[in-house]
Design brief:
The protein has 1295 residues and is mainly alpha-helical. The protein is 66% helix and 1% strand. The two termini are 56 Å apart. 31% of the residues are buried.
Length: 1295
């Protein structure tokens, strides 16, 4: 506790009883300490423990002491402690109902009396009174003692004067008290006490809130007559009180500026206005004409929050009126202005208000009114709510159906006058009349289409199949058809367009329709839980309740439209119509075959047919030939499958025609060039079904597209052709439209997209300007010659003979010269622009090619996943490695990196690490061995280890394929041990000698080259996966232990040998005499390697010795355990001599390994006796660092003055010898110099010591030698006395 708290407890009235008894009970006292802790959990635990203790130990002195401590703690100086003591006091009063509340209130008043408390504790006393009243209120007994209620209210009234400390807490507490007391207590006790507060209700929001709570709680007491006496009017909301209420609302808005919440008093006023039937007066005068007249800020935000909170309280008519008024217009302007960064945004709060209202409201009319009201708020025709507004998921089915019908009507006949339109200041200045109206209609229709698509795309929306189909039919009809005559058989022909559709809106409809197709393809089937659907059953996607695909329903609707040329304009030509009809016939035949017996590819082929048929309306010229080829391929595929099932002989076919699978693969790749995610997914599904039939030629066609070397040779691919320019443009427009639709959900102005495009164009212009500056450095020589010709024709070139004055040319000549120069520069500008366009076109084509390759990788991934055991998978190894190698060695952009990452993932994780692999490679042994040799040769030539890792992984994959799996009958013929040995030695079709020779060359290269792309981990994986090859390579590795090219390679050889010898598989393969022979060879190599260690203590040598000792430890331990006949004496001698070569430390990896090895020879590490070091010796040996000394370069050096006479030379030599001896016998002199530098108290100059100061000048020697010995000793003694304390502190030497 702080000193102030101690003072409070000391000055508390009343004697403390039985202090000694209380001091003995530490558990009881610790409760009060825990109540003051900052941790809330600790305080709550202390309250609970205190109540439980007092209930079990009912002692009067402890209970009295508890009240004393809790009342004292209410004014604790620590802010977090006050709520703890208040809660504890309230719970104690609730637990002990026999304690009167009046006595506790009296203690609070006496203890925290504001008149008698010290000035510095005045603020704490205020909070003590407040938390004391809160504790009494929390006891739930206040309503039983009316006088206590009166005392608490009077105490709170006295605290309302101190707003600078307590703010509005006293008034809020009075409001809470009023909400719990009965009406009799209020009428008899509190009404007279609160008369002043109730009469001044319009002064502050808190007092108005007090009046509103009293009106809600005690309507019989506060009747209109009583209100008229208090306020002067029988109602709260009337024309006279509106100005006062407006001021109170402004104060309330300012009070919650930081909290961003709606004050309770405002919502209570709204409820009161509805009760008094004065809502229109309150809304129009107080909100619209009062709050909204203020500058945009807290007053506006309070109005918006009140609008959102009022939605559940209003009737349908009031909702329509409010949602079409000034508050909504101001809200729309706020939404538009808050799009900029660092602006306060109230949109998330409004979304929450609307979502909560729709979720809790069951009235479809009210839901529709709110949705239409917010959707009608538009800026230049574009609604401010996003097109992907998530609140629609809470609509009732009836309201959703009506809302969709309203959207369709607004699309067909845009009625801008029915929208709540607003404009910003800039838009008001730039009015364009008719053109602006047409633009508004376009913007509105774009939003409506996006809104309809988002409703279908949102799986949380509860929608029926008729609604989904209705939206899809509506969008499809207006995207590709137009009505000639209204008919009841086609619902979409009944709606007439008031304004014809423009090309932009048509494009939005087309893109939205294919987006709808994708959403419907992933649309889950709403299963009724009562039907007993299994929980773990796979969910069905893309079908209706009867199991029919959504796209098939749309195809039937399209067939209906095409069969009514009198009612609907036909978008297809006769040839295209014929292709459509044949497609429908193929789908019908597929459905018939599916009924007889469903197959894996039947549904996929149907979906592909229908999807291509739908895209026929978008790009008929491109897909017409694809449709024909697709039909023939499917017919051939189904015919071949039927023949295989019936086991009939195949009819003779023309050998010149390609296989149907090859054509199908070409079709799928052509479809992948379309910018449609739906087509991409369907192509993957179809290819997955035809994977078992894929031939080598079909797979080659896929790999040719991915081959980077063929891209350099050929100028074009499937995607980049001149015929596809229109398609590429459409794809770009589609992407742009999607971007605009995404942005439109958050923005109200379509000009933002244009602004973004302008920004991109500016960036492109800047890049082009940079290119121009680079090109200007190299002037085109042909342009120079043309310029010279033009100037010579007009005699405008100055020569040495004539002058260079411009007066030589007349006006006509100058005009001709200007025209010639203008034409020349214009032509040059066109040429440069053509070069830039060509460069841009090449970049776009390159991006399209990369995107197409990424899509084609889908087919490769599907093939690897479905046909991992096919021999054709081996054809993927080299092409994928080529892609990885080329991508790693080039500076690529993000798109190329994604392509590279995808290819590497397919190769490493799905091909090489797959548990399923080709096991029928017996007839391709030679080809696979050649491939392995080629891969390993390439591996050693690489420079990048990351690329080398992929090549080495491919080599291990080829070895795994060659080895295959051991035959099933081999294990039954042998015993358990024999079967295990045979499994280890089984290598299938691997030519062990040839393969081990390949890896031996790689290992020798790795152990000999300074920089090798191979790594240790690669060979470790080889040894662990193929122990037979490890055994074959052991002799090469053991040889490098002593004869390695470099020291670190000798250490690597030890690591390899250790890993090999620790392997159980290797031990089993070399069991018996070969294993003993290996141990003998390794022992000799280790001895030779340790003999080569010299006395140079470099890190490389030490690392090698550590690795060698690790191998020695395993070898010696294994020989002793297995009792092998291996002579370890040479190795022991080398180990004994190793201590003389390398200086060992006390601890370290090297030392620990050494003693662990020699321990097996009976040598024990000597124990070092710990002796206490002599402190004096240590101080003499290791003097402390001198502080305050000048470096040698800064010291003044003695000048060598030539001495002419021999006597003077002898005297100088003696003097120098004397100086040297003095400095040698005075170790503390230097210390004295440092002390002199750091001594701040002594400012006078001290006498210089012999060696400490600078050497005396030869010119002053005579003066220095005249000093007597006694004077010198006296000066030294004085210096000792002054330096003695500092020398002790710094540990200086003795003089």
């Amino acid at each position: 506790m702080s000193t102030e708290m101690v003072a409070l407890t000391v000055t508390a009235p009343g004697p403390v009883k039985q202090a000694g008894i209380l001091q003995q009970n530490r558990v009881f006292l610790d409760f009060f300490w825990d109540l003051a802790k900052p941790d809330q959990e600790a305080r709550l635990k202390a309250v609970e423990n205190l109540i439980q203790y007092l209930k079990t130990n009912t002692k009067a002195d402890e209970l009295e002491y508890t009240f004393k401590r809790l009342v004292d703690g209410l004014a604790h100086t620590r802010e977090t402690a006050r709520p703890g003591f208040s809660l504890a006091l309230g719970q104690v009063l609730c637990a002990f109902e026999d304690i009167p509340l009046q006595s506790v209130l009296d203690k609070i008043k006496v203890k925290h009396n504001l008149l008698t408390v010290k000035k510095k504790l005045l603020r704490n006393a205020m909070f003590g009174n407040l938390f004391g009243v809160l504790a009494i209120h929390q006891s739930s007994r206040i309503s039983k003692e009316p006088q206590v209620v009166l005392g608490c209210v009077q105490l709170l009234q006295s605290l309302t004067q101190h707003r600078q400390h307590l703010k509005d807490l006293p008034t809020k507490t009075m409001t809470d008290i009023l909400s719990e007391i009965p009406e009799e207590v209020f009428e008899e006790v509190l009404l007279s006490a609160l008369k002043t507060d109730l009469a001044s209700a319009f002064s502050t929001p808190e007092q108005l809130q007090l009046l509103l709570v009293a009106l809600q709680r005690f309507p019989q007491t506060l009747k209109p007559k009583k209100l008229k006496k208090l306020l002067g009017s029988s109602t709260i909301i009337n024309a006279d009180n509106i100005p006062k209420l407006t001021e109170v609302l402004k104060m309330a808005a300012g009070s919650v500026k930081k909290e961003c919440v709606l004050p309770a008093v405002v919502l209570d006023l709204l409820k009161l206005s509805l009760k008094e039937d004065s809502f229109q007066l309150f809304w129009n005068n107080a909100i619209i004409n009062g709050m909204l007249k203020e500058q945009p800020g807290p007053a506006h935000y309070l109005s918006f929050r009140l609008l959102g909170s009022a939605l559940p309280l209003l009737s349908t008519a009031q909702l329509k009126d409010v949602l079409s008024g000034e508050v909504m217009i101001q809200y729309g302007e706020h939404v538009v202005s808050s799009q900029k960064p660092d602006r306060f945004k109230l949109v998330p709060e409004m979304d929450t208000y609307v979502s909560d209202f729709l979720q809790g409201c069951q009235d479809a009319d009210k839901q529709l009114a709110v949705m239409v009201g917010f959707s009608s708020l538009s800026n230049q025709g574009y609604p401010v709510v996003p097109s992907v507004w998530r609140v629609v998921q809470h609509l009732q089915p009836a309201a959703l159906q009506q809302y969709v019908e309203w959207l369709k009507d607004m699309f067909l006949q845009p009625q801008l006058d029915k929208l709540l339109e607003f404009s910003t200041r800039k838009q008001k200045d730039n009015k364009e009349g008719k053109e602006q109206k047409e633009n508004s209609i376009i913007r509105l229709r774009r939003w409506v289409v996006s809104r309809l698509s988002s409703i279908i795309d949102n799986h949380q929306v509860k929608k029926e199949e008729d609604l989904i189909m209705g939206v899809a039919r509506f969008v499809f009809f207006h995207a590709f058809f137009s009505a000639k005559k209204a008919s009841s058989s086609i619902q979409e022909t009944k709606g007439t367009l008031s304004v014809p559709l423009d090309d932009k809106t048509k494009g939005v409809l087309v893109n939205s329709f294919f987006g709808l197709l994708l959403s419907m393809h992933h649309l889950p089937l709403d299963d009724d839980p009562a039907e007993g659907v299994a929980v773990n059953q796979k969910r069905t996607l893309g079908v209706t309740a009867d199991g029919t695909m959504w796209i098939y329903h749309l195809a039937q609707y399209t067939q209906l439209l095409l069969s009514q040329p009198k009612l609907v304009n036909q978008p297809l030509s006769p040839e295209q119509r014929k292709a459509w009809d044949s497609m429908m016939e193929s789908v019908a035949s597929l459905k018939k075959k599916a009924k007889k017996g469903p197959t894996a590819g039947n549904g996929a082929f149907q979906q592909l047919f229908l999807l291509v048929g739908m895209h026929l309306f978008k790009a008929p010229e491109e897909l017409l030939d694809i449709m024909r080829d697709l039909q023939s391929c499917v017919d051939m595929a189904l015919a071949k499958k039927a023949k295989k099932k019936k086991k009939k002989q195949a009819t003779e076919q023309q050998e010149e025609e390609p296989e149907w699978v090859e054509v199908m693969v070409e079709i799928l790749m052509a479809l992948l060039s379309q910018s449609s995610r739906h087509i991409r997914q369907v192509c993957k599904t179809v290819f997955s079904s035809i994977c078992p039939h894929v031939t080598a030629e079909a797979l080659t066609a896929i790999l040719d597209v991915l081959d980077p070397e063929k891209d350099d040779q050929e100028d074009g691919t499937v995607v980049v052709t001149d015929d596809n320019k229109a398609r590429k443009k459409n794809a770009n427009e589609e992407d742009d439209e999607e971007m605009e639709d995404d942005k439109s959900g958050e923005s109200d102005d379509s000009d933002e997209d244009d602004g973004d495009d302008a920004m991109e164009e500016d960036d492109d212009d800047e890049e082009e300007e940079d290119d121009e500056e680079g090109e200007l450095a190299v002037v085109d020589q042909s342009f120079r010659l043309e310029l010279m010709k033009v100037l010579q024709q007009q005699n405008a070139l100055a020569t040495e003979e004539d002058g260079s004055d411009d007066d030589d040319l007349d006006d006509d000549a100058m005009m001709k010269l200007d025209k010639g120069l203008a034409a020349l520069f214009s032509e040059q500008k066109k040429k440069s622009q053509a070069k830039k366009d060509e460069k841009t076109e090449l970049q776009k084509e390159k991006a399209l090619v990369r995107d197409f390759k990424i899509k084609v990788l889908d087919l490769v991934e599907v093939f690897v996943a479905r046909q991992a055991g096919s021999p054709l998978v081996l054809r993927l190894v080299e092409p994928l490695l080529t892609i990885i190698d080329r991508g790693m060695n080039s500076n690529s952009d993000q798109q190329e990196q994604d392509f590279l990452r995808r290819a590497a993932d397919i190769f490493r994780n799905q091909l090489c690490r797959s548990k399923v692999y080709c096991r029928t490679a017996g007839d391709r042994q030679g080809e696979l061995h050649d491939l392995l040799e080629k891969l390993m040769a390439k591996t050693q030539k690489l420079s990048d280890s990351s690329v080398c890792l992929y090549y080495f992984s491919a080599s291990l994959y080829v070895v795994k394929v060659l080895r295959g799996a051991p035959p099933a009958g081999a294990k039954e013929e042998h015993s358990a041990d024999g079967a295990a040995a045979s499994d280890l030695s089984f290598m299938g079709n691997v030519d062990v000698d040839r393969v081990s020779g390949i890896f031996r060359d790689a290992l020798s290269s790795f152990m000999a080259r300074r920089k090798s792309p191979l790594t240790t981990q690669m060979f470790t994986d080889l040894f662990s996966r193929f122990p037979v090859l490890c055994v074959k390579l052991l002799d090469t590795i053991v040889h490098h232990i002593a004869s390695g090219a470099r020291v670190h390679q000798q250490g690597l050889a030890c690591v390899f040998v250790l890993r090999a010898m620790q392997s159980r598989e290797v031990q089993q393969l070399l069991s018996g005499a070969p294993w003993t022979e290996l141990c003998v060879t390794v022992s000799g190599q280790l001895a030779s390697s340790l003999e080569q260690v010299d006395q140079t203590e470099t890190k490389v040598v030490k690392d090698k010795v550590v690795k060698t000792l690790e191998l020695c430890q395993f070898l010696v331990k294994h020989v002793h355990q297995q009792k092998l006949s291996v002579d370890l004496e040479p190795l022991q001698k080398v180990l004994q001599s190793l201590t003389s070569t390398i200086a060992f430390k006390k601890t370290g990896k090297l030392e620990d390994n050494y003693w662990a090895v020699v321990k097996h020879f009976g040598v024990v590490k000597p124990k070092v006796e710990k002796t206490k070091p002599d402190k004096e010796a240590v101080q003499q040996k290791v003097p402390k660092k001198k502080k305050g000394f000048l470096p040698e370069t800064k010291k003044r050096k003695r000048r060598n003055i030539p001495i002419l006479e021999p006597a003077a030379a002898a005297a100088a030599a003696e003097l120098a010898a004397a100086d040297n001896s003095t400095s040698r016998h005075q170790p503390g002199a230097d210390k004295g110099q440092a002390i002199k530098k750091h001594d701040k108290k002594t400012k006078q100059k001290r006498p210089a010591d012999g060696a400490a100061g600078s050497q005396p000048n030869p010119a002053k020697k005579s003066k220095a030698t005249t000093t007597t010995q006694s004077e010198s000793n006296t000066a030294k003694m004085k210096m000792k006395k002054k330096k003695k304390p500092k020398q002790k502190k710094e540990g200086g030497g003795q003089m």
